[in-house]
Specification:
The complex is a heterodimer. By secondary structure, chain A is an alpha/beta fold. Chain A contains twelve helices and ten strands. Classes of the chains: A alpha/beta, B mainly alpha.
């Protein structure tokens, strides 16, 4: 991917296997979010290709418009939360099921007149929404505005909303950012639960605790290039990764004091 | 941030479509930025005095040339002479000083304003549930109320036309969050469609009405296509231009539209084929029902016609709000990028909002043409768009009741102050400023959720996006 003279992602090639949790890590500016934007269709790659082995067979994502990619089964969350703040938690989850519902409305005419086929579809949508509200422990906040939820709950709601599109691949952009250790722990559980439901996961994360614990594979990017690709243990031992991102063990275990001096 | 967000979130120079700076979009701040706590407190009296003196100084600077010096024709008609009126200047400056001082003291010693609470939002909701049926009952009963005059009914028709236009625009601006400054174009398309179809092909009102709506919707889609990539200010400018283009075309295409002379002799609507001719006669409404022929019959019929059309607009909007399409509109207003990530076809959703909004504008236009029996481009100037938009904004974006009240206040109120003559605009402007100060998000600013598991809770305006 090139932006003018800048090559943000250069010959990065990796495979996220079905049923795996694949983590993409790397220092800030390495091109992780650009990779996500390419996969989810917010950018069109300057060259190269992206293939999704989805429900409807092989699908070249690099030639699919943005909203079609989501319909093919790629859902994402955003690094800074992008909820529909003025709509309730439940409405957020129903908007995510827009396409299934819209199909049941016969181009809106059936819905305006309140025909039966739409009611059944709506019941189904409510059931799915409730399922993910329970999974993310948001059921008691269902009728509150999404913007009024605390930060951690907003992060969970964004994941629930993405899951309501019934994806085959869920792309999580720094889901643990800003969470406390207990919330991070819960997030790991939630991600495992999602994987158990049959959805593959692609994860960008800086919280190495989360990454090393749940990832099946880790891809490391630096300056737009892939520098390592393997299991968590392999990547942790990789010298290039340590130099570029993880840092040496000593630094990690004994952080140098920020403020020194005597009064 | 706003530039990165403005074009579908795909920036040109390699930024990410969402920034990480943590600064919320202006829309997320809840509209008008709050005035933070002022500078460090100074002794209140000294500060107030100093500020008042400053204001008096400015006033003196203004009033000395404006009021203090006056030129009169000299005695005998020879030349001009300057007359000074220092006394008047002193009085005016004194008034400014005293008023400013009082204002300062008042703002220093009044208690801090209480934040808007959820309770108040809930109370407004309860009041709202009572106001809406009361207004509807009044609207239905108006022609039969004892004190209603012909003038009152005409005013009612005018107000209801604007209620309908406001509700139509509310779909585009209030729900989908697309700022449309050229809404009057669709009103014009509807009016001219009706006028041309009925005068050229001799079609009846009830055939022309849907055709006018369809044609307006078609133009809505036509406008929608080029502006899909634009948001906020840019969208407003293009829609404004579109409104003007339609008007200029109507003005200059003399062979079709009659140019500035307009189209006259537009057929009046009939009651299932029964005409409302003033003289009665066979086949007229009065004759069929055995009533005394009266010009009021037509006015009452027109009144119920526009009431029915307005209620249809309201019903469709309320239904759509609870349907996937309406929810997608509101989601689009809240966050377009998230919509795309959820697989919503942003293009189609925007076009549908434009088309449906335009369709109701077209209906209103057809009604306008049949009521007036004469239309000309003069009726479709930019000020009409501005008034309709003002109704929607003052009423509260997305609120059906708020828009109805705002139309009643603005159009009805404007008529009520007719006696004030040129000061009418002053009162009008003052009222608008007052509403924007006290209720910056419109009269009814809270949002009612379209669906709920338990009890519906109104969502306070601070959280609801306004469209960008």
């Amino acid at each position: 991917m090139r932006f003018g003279g800048l090559t943000a992602v250069d010959h990065v090639s990796f495979t996220a296997h079905a049923g795996d949790i694949t983590a993409v890590i790397g220092p800030n500016g390495a091109g992780k979010t650009t990779v996500f934007n390419l996969i989810t269709g917010f950018y069109t790659p300057s060259s190269g290709e992206l293939l999704l082995h989805g429900r409807s067979g092989h699908r070249p994502l690099h030639r699919t418009p943005g909203h079609r990619i989501a319909q093919e089964g790629v859902a994402r969350t955003f690094q800074n939360i992008r909820l529909f703040a003025g709509m309730t938690v439940l409405e957020n989850l129903l908007v995510a099921q827009h396409n299934q519902l819209q199909k049941a409305t016969f181009f809106g005419v059936g819905a305006v007149l309140g025909l039966g086929g739409y009611r059944a579809a709506e019941r189904e949508a409510m059931k799915r929404a409730k399922h993910w509200l329970e999974a993310t422990r948001l059921l008691d906040r269902a009728d509150d505005a999404a913007g009024s939820l605390p930060y951690g709950a907003q992060r969970r709601l964004e994941i629930a909303r993405a899951m309501c599109t019934d994806p085959v691949l869920l792309c999580l952009d720094e889901p643990a950012a800003g969470l406390n250790p207990r919330e991070s722990e819960e997030l790991s559980e939630l991600i495992r639960l999602i994987r158990a439901s049959g959805c593959s996961i692609l994860l960008i994360e800086h919280d190495m605790g989360v990454v090393m614990k749940i990832s099946d594979r880790v891809v490391v990017l630096d300056h737009g290039k892939k520098i390592a690709d393997g299991t968590a243990a392999e990547v942790r031992a990789d010298e290039k990764v340590i130099a570029a991102y993880l840092g040496t063990g000593d630094e990690g275990e004994h952080p140098s004091p920020v403020v020194e001096g005597a009064v | 941030m706003s530039t990165a967000n403005s074009r579908f979130g795909v920036p040109h120079e390699g930024g990410v479509p969402h920034s990480d700076d943590g600064v919320p979009d202006p829309g997320e701040m809840g509209g008008i930025p709050r005035v933070g706590p002022g500078p460090a407190p100074r002794p209140p009296l000294t500060h107030a005095l100093r500020d008042a003196l400053l204001a008096a100084l400015v006033a003196a600077g203004l009033f000395i040339p404006l009021v203090g010096l006056r030129t009169d024709v000299g005695p005998g008609g020879g030349g001009l002479m300057i007359r000074t009126r220092w006394g008047d200047v002193a009085i005016l400056v004194g008034i400014v000083f005293a008023a400013r001082l009082l204002l300062n003291l008042w703002s220093n010693f009044r208690p801090a304003p209480a934040p808007r609470s959820a309770q108040r939002t809930a109370l407004m909701g309860r009041v709202g549930t009572a106001v809406a049926p009361a207004l509807l009952a009044l609207a239905i009963a108006l022609p039969f109320l004892p004190g209603t005059t012909r003038y009152g009914l005409d005013l009612g028709i005018l107000v209801l036309t604007y209620v309908m236009l406001g509700w139509g625009l509310n779909i585009v601006v209030g729900l989908a969050g697309l700022l449309d400054l050229g809404y009057v174009a669709f009103y014009a398309v509807g009016a001219y469609s009706y006028a041309l179809l009925s005068t050229t092909f001799d079609l009846s009102f009830w055939i022309c009405l849907p055709l006018a709506g369809i044609l307006a919707a078609f133009w809505g889609v036509l406008l929608g296509f080029p502006v899909l990539r634009l948001r906020g200010d840019y969208l407003a400018i293009v829609t404004l231009a579109f409104g003007e283009i339609i008007r200029v075309v109507l003005l200059n295409w003399v062979s079709l539209t009659g140019g500035p002379n307009g189209i006259s002799g537009i057929p009046r609507p009939t009651f299932f084929g029964l005409s409302f001719s003033a003289g009665g006669g066979p086949g007229s409404f009065a004759d069929f029902f055995g009533l005394e022929p009266s010009p009021t019959h037509r006015v009452v019929f027109l009144y119920y016609l526009i009431l029915g059309l307005a209620l249809l607009t309201n019903w469709v909007t309320l239904r759509l709000r609870r349907q996937p399409l309406g929810r997608a509109w509101e989601a689009l207003r809240e966050d377009e990028i998230a919509c795309r990530a959820l697989g919503i076809n942003v293009t189609n959703t925007k076009l549908s909002a434009f088309a449906i909004g335009a369709m109701f504008g077209g209906f209103a236009g057809a009604f306008f043409a049949t009521r007036q029996a004469f239309i000309s481009p003069e009726s479709f100037t930019f000020i009409e768009s501005a008034i309709i938009l003002a109704i929607v904004v003052l009423g509260g974006l997305g609120s059906q009741l708020g828009v109805a009240i705002a139309a009643l206040v603005m159009i009805g109120g404007f008529e009520a102050f007719r006696d004030l003559e040129e000061y009418r605009m002053l009162v009008f402007g003052g009222a608008m400023v007052a509403i924007m100060v006290w209720r910056p998000r419109g009269l009814v600013s809270s949002r009612t959720p379209s669906v709920s598991l338990g009890a519906r809770k109104a969502i306070s305006a601070e959280l609801v996006g306004q469209g960008r």
